[in-house]
Amino acid sequence: MNTLTKAEEQVMQILWDKKEGFVKDLLLQFPEPKPAYNTVSTIIRILDKKGFVGHRSFGKSHQYYPLVSREQYRTERFSGLMKDYFNNSMQQVLSHFGSSGSLSMKEADEIIKIMEDLKQNQGSNE
Fold it and tell me: What is the end-to-end Cα distance of the chain in Å, rounded?
């Protein structure tokens, strides 16, 4: 799966939230200052060519909808980051967040609970 540019991701975030829309509908969801209509139209056509969105034609207008879910993209993107920056090691990912100070104690406790639940579930499946 291709990686999206920041602008493409912004359009996809809007489309994931709205589920579908014409360019004018998507444009309304942008914060100020809003990009030009032609800019959003160009980005959405690129996303269509990349296979991230599909469209239904209504005369000369097109209603766009996501072909790739937010979860699919997130999973693929995170897998790429893990591979490129953390040697495919979840331990390195967690260590990074723990040592960088960006992980709160509450989040650390929640991660520990998730891991304990996973261990317990895996143990009961064996």
Answer: 34
What residue type is assigned to position 57 of the chain?
S
Single pTM value for the model: 0.78
Whether 71 is covered by a domain: the verdict is no
**Domain of 104?**
89-126
DSSP labels for 5-68? PHHHHHHHHHHHHHSSB-HHHHHHTSPSSPPPHHHHHHHHHHHHHHTSEEEEEETTEEEEEESS
Q: Is residue 115 part of a domain?
A: yes
pLDDT tens digits for range 25-41: 999 999 999 999 999 99
Question: φ, ψ for residue 32 (rounded to 5)?
Answer: -75, 145
Token pair of 110 as six digits: 């929640």
44 CB-near residues (< 8 Å, 6+ apart): 11, 23, 26, 53, 64
CATH number at residue 26: 1.10.10.10
